[in-house]
């Protein structure tokens, strides 16, 4: 088969899929896309030891995570303790009867980051995964630069990974279903660990002496590009959208305040409040961002806030969506965890088509397709406004 002819056939197929989705979108335009539900507090977890003084160090919930299948919830409850709870939360009676999967992990150091793995993936064939690879693990990044990897089913410590010279601030298992763990530290390095190979040295990716967003290739472990800004900023948090084609970044500059950027300079959020965490929903194009005052969830596709809540005395520092949507967990500086109901949105057919394409096709490949500019802008997320200012309830005009 001629490669040129084969490439043209693939282009024609992709174009037909896009056009079909656009036609269906017109047909479905009269269907309600938002299922109205009350946006209220579902549940709250309180730490066993309350802080002696508000703002005292050691009691913060720096990380909350749901397992890939949604059956477990991990809570960094301060003082070096991580709690593993079954989800949905079991009642007190069932817990006393021994029906709860609750476990307590004593990490003996402040826990900054948590990550469940391996992630669920439909791309990895079952024959290439043995039973041990399917065992659910929980990685914990500690204040002393060590990473502990625990077996969720037993609560036993499996690995202790050393090498970072500063607190491990973030952890992530790669989304391809493998036991590859990526760690980010305040020592300005990324380390890629292959947990399937016991004792294997990690790949170390070293950044610059100042804070900036750098993109690396996990295939070749080489630098790809860095994202530039008008002013030098300190980065606080980042996350990729479900299809991996959109990157959201929360950053700080002393004279301009806190910003939230989508895909470098596609969209910006500015506020006097301090952004501490952001997270894309695994269902639809919802972006949650937590600051010291409130939790806000932005529907990026429809350009509107769908949740603006959690105004209280205890400032929040982290947030995480449930993998099936509908719930988001937030962690606070006083050690509390709160679970909030998220409005259920039905993704548009156009967005579902875009997500399916962008899972496996890069921006450069999409731009090479002979499609109208409006469709190309949509597929590459360039239809999002270049600048977006979101006001809180107190400052909304």
From TrEMBL:
Pathway annotation from the record: Protein modification; protein ubiquitination
Keywords for the protein's UniProt record, in alphabetical order: Repeat, Ubl conjugation pathway, WD repeat
WD repeat ranges, renumbered to this chain: 161-195, 320-342
Coiled-coil annotated residue ranges, if any: none
UniProt-recorded name of the protein: WD repeat and SOCS box-containing protein 2
Domain SOCS box span(s) in chain numbering: 346-385
Species whose genome carries this gene: Labeo rohita
